[in-house]
Design brief:
The protein has 342 residues and is of the alpha/beta class. Helices cover 22% and strands 29% of the residues. The protein has 7 helices and 20 strands. Strands 1, 2, 5, 6, 7, 8 and 19 form a 7-stranded mixed β-sheet that branches. Strands 12-11-10-16 form a 4-stranded parallel β-sheet. A 3-stranded antiparallel β-sheet has the order 13-14-15, with no helix packed on it. The longest helix has 19 residues. The two termini are 41 Å apart. The structure holds flavin-adenine dinucleotide. Flavin-adenine dinucleotide (FAD) binds next to helix 1, strand 2, helix 2, strand 9 and helix 6.
Length: 342
Amino acid sequence: MTEHISADVVIVGAGPVGLFAVFELGLLDIRAHVVDILDRPGGQCAELYPEKPIYDIPALPVVTGQQLTDNLMEQIRPFQPTFHFSEMITSLDHLPDGRFRLKTDGGETFETKVVVIAAGGGSFQPKRPPIPGVEAFDGKSVHYAVRKMEAFRAQRVTILGGGDSALDWTINLAQVAARVTLIHRRDAFRAAPASVNKMRALVEADVVDLAIGQVTELIGENGVLEAVKVKRDDGSTHEIATDALLPFFGLTMKLGPIADWGLALHENLVPVDTEKFETTTPGIFAIGDINTYPGKLKLILSGFHEAALMAQAAARRIDPERRVVFQYTTSSTSLQKKLGVA
Ligand code: FAD
């Protein structure tokens, strides 16, 4: 379904920097829409190192990637951002009235006065399995995410991988699919032990099939899959009848559609000034890992600083008549009211 949303600010990316931008904009009474291709907030912190400790966030001697994300979510709660997860911003166009139109791959359209690109290293994209000719089945029989479980009702689903996503979807899709087969190259899994136990119980109960080996061939025509050929460790092969193949081989980061938005780029990064962190296009800002300027350090704390200065400039762009007054959260009753603490 296509949705048209009118906004003051759309933030592209819900990594730590995009999340903190919600806070800085919120202090200036600007509510943000935040879009991320992932199904949850945190960007690299949540996706790449949720349990690793970070030691250089000011005043937090040690915090894991997930804890930092959870803390940021709590900090921005008073500003009620609208999140649009599992959506990639695919296009950015200029409107005659100076605003921007952003479209997502999920059919949403935003018309916004300000765009804040907080896209980090770019969009996380699924890794394709090394099966010859797999591209021909992409989108029809091969899917890298589950948007709606119903789409797999009564289908013979084959899932590849040994991590959390592969195990979670094996367990969940077993409820709707005609049959689920999990294929992994070895009989050991990286997923949470509770999920592994659950999967093994379903195999024991003959609800799910487990095959150890590697898919070497997809059998089918015109993008419609009929079966996958699996090679076991001893070199023997067998076929598994399959309507839908779901490979979960992890994610890589690619700049993605941002490259086509007409922005000046320098080595896949977006150059900005260091006063407002605005790109060469007025009204489009870039903060966090995605931007570049002399002396840039790709650190979370740099992105937080950039978010604060961006917000001041964005406020003036949204309402040119507005006088932005500098205030401390410790002493300003007006800021404390916005934060819900006064
Ligand atoms: P990201 O965290 O990359 O988030 C960007 C988000 O934008 C992603 O979720 C992505 O899906 C989304 N996105 C991109 N394009 C689109 C699009 N077109 N549509 C919708 N969404 C989109 N930094 C430190 O300061 N200290 C450390 O100790 C530290 N340790 C690290 C350890 C590791 C292993 C790694 C990988 C990084 C580490 N970093 C550390 C770097 C830190 O994680 C990054 O600086 C930080 O995540 C940048 O935040 P960000 O919000 O700019 O981008």
